[in-house]
Amino acid sequence: MSTTSTAAAWRAVIGFGFVSLAADMVYEGARSVSGPLLASLGASAVLVGLITGAGEAMALVLRVVFGPLADRTGAYWSLTIIGYGLTAVCVPLLAITPAVGAAGLGFACVLLLAERTGKAIRSPSKSALLAEMARQVGRGRGFGVHKAMDEVGAFAGPLLVAALIGATGLIAPAMAWLAIPGALCMLLLFWLRAKTPTDLGSKAPTSSGRGWWAETFGTHLGRPFFLFAACSALTTAGLVTFGVISFHLDAAHLIPLAAIPVAYAAGQATSGLVALVNGYAYDRVGARVLFVLPVLVAVVPALAFTRTAWIAVAGVLCWGAASGLQDSTVKALVADLVEPDRRATAYGVFAAIQGGAAILGGAAAGFLYETSLPTLIALVAATQVAAAVLLWLTIRRHGTGSGTAS
After folding, report:
1. 1-195 and 218-406 share one CATH topology?
2. Taking a C-beta distance cutoff of 8 angstroms, is the pair 135, 406 a contact?
3. Which CATH superfamily is 1-195 part of?
4. How far apart are the C-alpha atoms of 301 and 261, rounded to whole Å?
5. Which residues are CB-contacts of 406 (< 8 A; sequence separation ≥ 6)?
6. By C-alpha distance, which of 36, 37, 29 is closest to 177?
7. For residues 213-229, b (16+ Cβ closer than 10 Å) or e, as one string?
8. What residues contact residue 331 under an 8 Å CB cut-off, 6+ apart?
9. Distance (Å, whole) CA 372 – CA 367
């Protein structure tokens, strides 16, 4: 590998990192106050839960549509740009929802769901592009660096919103200010598109003549892929959401209410750091480094739902670490399990499976938190043992246990 090609690959990876950093400032900033914003417009707790839950499900499940679409059309960059554009536009528009009277609540709900749809549109294509860009420097490193930069935005966005709300006492003006990182995100993305040619989308798309179902869920993705998808479904279902954790932190009066967003930011910072370290390890020793993921998922409820503040915060940090691995090293392994021209499809299918698991896991965690914490802790631990077995089978069938750097 030449020095020039390595430098170009790192430029592309870091460029995409800055795109994600700016975008995360926008949508993570909004997500940190979406509940209070909807409540200020007249939403009930049930509606807040419905809209935010539906949004997260859409962001995952709809990828099963847009991933295959990218592979069929070769429109990776176009779908990426459209997806980021929806985030850059929809979030700042939340600023005007208090000014439109009775229609404000409905408008806000539409904007929040449209922003999450943008996430679904761009994610498979973005991940496929990033996997190709990172090929020459090691996909573990590439996804790890990207995730670390992504989490800088996820850390900074909520803190920026908190500062703006503290200065004005209002949520809406803070949403308007998020137009600045949104515009920066789009400018960086167009610059990156012009400066970073890839083989993806450069050839005319071909069709096998099979229908959408066969193309998407057929055996062409391979048994190791579906074994790993099942593994990831279990880790996703078992990872208790921060919403439930923050509910516990507040209800048990473990830390002040104002400190809960700070704990969230600390979890995001941990996410980026662990993704970076684990990504580099992935390129050296292979998929074996992912055995740490089910361990982290298993200890989250055991720590986070205690009645001791510092132990609960340690649980938040483990939650952040697990989240970081799911969005970095896991994606690197997916890229190594499938052919390049099927990666967007693979990411779409993978995310849809994760989305279904997240809905089931979230519902189970909420129910068991209210009824029996020991049962919740034991159930999560049992599912993570099964996840570890599935990961072992994936590695054994595909031979991804050794280093993968190109």
Report:
1. yes
2. yes
3. MFS general substrate transporter like domains (1.20.1250.20)
4. 19
5. 1, 135, 136, 137, 138
6. 29
7. eebbeeebbbebbbbbb
8. 127, 131, 143, 347
9. 8
Residue with tokens 């949104």: 182
> Each residue of 171-198: pLDDT tens digit?
888 899 999 999 999 999 999 988 876 5
What are the sequence ranges of the domains in the chain? Answer: 1-195, 218-406
DSSP 28-41: HHHHTTHHHHHHHT
Residue 9 CB contacts under 8 Å (≥ 6 apart), including other chains:
133, 134, 135, 136, 137, 142
CA distance 125 to 67: 7
What is this structure's pTM? 0.72
Block residue for tokens 């990961």:
391
Q: Select from 134, 181, 187 the least CA-distant residue to 153.
A: 181
Distance CA 151, CA 153 (A): 5
Tokens of 219: 């055996």
Average pLDDT over residues 325-332: 85
DSSP code of residue 287: G
**Which element (helix H / strand E) includes 46?**
helix 45-61
| 208-246 per-position pLDDT tens digit | 555 555 555 554 677 888 899 999 999 988 888 776 777
User: Residue 60 in contact with residue 355, Cβ under 8 Å?
Assistant: yes
The CATH architecture to which 218-406 belongs is Up-down Bundle (1.20)
Do 297 and 380 meet the contact criterion of CB atoms below 8 Å apart? yes
Nearest-angstrom CA–CA distance, 34 and 36:
6
Alpha-carbon distances of 273 from 10, 12, 268, 278, rounded to whole Å: 18, 20, 9, 9
Quote helix, strand, coil % in the chain, to nearest 5.
85, 0, 15
